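Data deposition worksheet. Section B asks for the primary sequence of the deposited chain exactly as it was used as input, without tags or linkers unless they were present during the calculation. Section C holds the resulting structure in token form. Section D is free text for depositor observations; keep each observation to a single sentence. Incomplete worksheets are returned to the depositor.
Section A, Depositor: J.P.
Section B:
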Amino acid sequence: MKKDKIIYWTATILIFLFEGVMPALTSHTEMAKEGIRHLGYPEYFGMMLMLFKVAGALVLILPQIPSRLKEWAYAGFTFDFLAATYSHLAVDGLQLMSFFPLLVLGVLMVSYYYYFYKLNPRKKLF
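Section C:
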């Protein structure tokens, strides 16, 4: 059980850092704004995306949040990572960086699996 908690919290903290802290600290920079423009999205989309990422990361990291809300955050991040991969492939073509969101999705799937199936088996949704 201790190993399961370590794996869960490591994966969840990595998601919190990548999707909560980093966007909150860097979304206002010119490099971040250029990245959004490069993919063909309007500038306001970056701010909206940052707000949802921070909210979702907080939902995942706070233990007192109900599991149904956590599942929505996991789903939102899954859509985000898949859409990011598609956007990068559509704009930049087949490059290594285009698949980075799928790597982060793998970390998210580890967090999801350990939360719903190892640490809280009664909270299984399916």
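Section D:
The helical segments are 2-26, 30-38, 43-61, 67-92, 100-119.
The radius of gyration is 15 Å.
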